[in-house]
Design brief:
Helices cover about 20% and strands about 40% of the residues.
Length: about 170
């Protein structure tokens, strides 16, 4: 019994050392800016598949803090592009996220989940939404903080169409 426990301890320590001393996965990346949008392509393993997305980090209109991360990628080659939005923790969830492109109609987007790195939502870029983003100049995204004060974040669409085309 003692020999069995000793063997388990040796195997456990060996596995721990192998895992903790193994080199971390290196991520190689290339980036290119398209006006206010950035294309970023990452590869986790040498020779592995490349994962590309376009992104912008938006600042609040009031105090110019980074408050919203916007990423667009194709989850699968034959599916439409998806936009992924990350809001700060502490948002008033029932208010959701409000999106308005230029002077168009305001669309309410529900916030799906909050994790330690922020609150997240996503939606497919199809139809009128995609056309408006490509033709638009400015998107306004608004949400409410924990005191239910509205925070409006301007998002430039300059370069969006070119960045999306490069993503494909």
């Amino acid at each position: 019994m003692l020999a069995h426990a000793r063997l388990i301890a040796i195997v456990s320590v060996s596995l721990y050392l192998l895992i903790s001393l193994a080199p971390a996965q290196a991520i190689t990346a290339r980036e290119k800016d398209y006006q206010d949008w950035r294309l970023r392509c990452e590869t986790k393993d040498e020779g592995g598949p490349e994962r590309c997305f376009i992104m912008q980090i938006a600042k609040s209109a009031k105090d110019k803090r980074d408050v919203l991360r916007i990423g667009v990628r194709y989850p699968e080659p034959d599916k439409p592009a998806m936009v992924f939005l990350t809001l700060p923790l502490g948002v008033y969830l029932p208010g959701g996220l409000l999106l308005q492109i230029d002077d168009g109609e305001t669309v309410k987007i529900p916030v799906e989940i909050c994790l330690p790195n922020g609150c997240h939502t996503r939606m497919a870029l199809v139809g009128d939404l995609l056309k408006s983003l490509k033709a638009g100049r400015l998107a306004k995204l608004a949400f409410h903080d924990s005191r239910q004060q509205q925070i409006t974040v301007p998002v430039s669409l300059a370069g969006f169409t070119a960045a999306l085309a490069a993503l494909k």
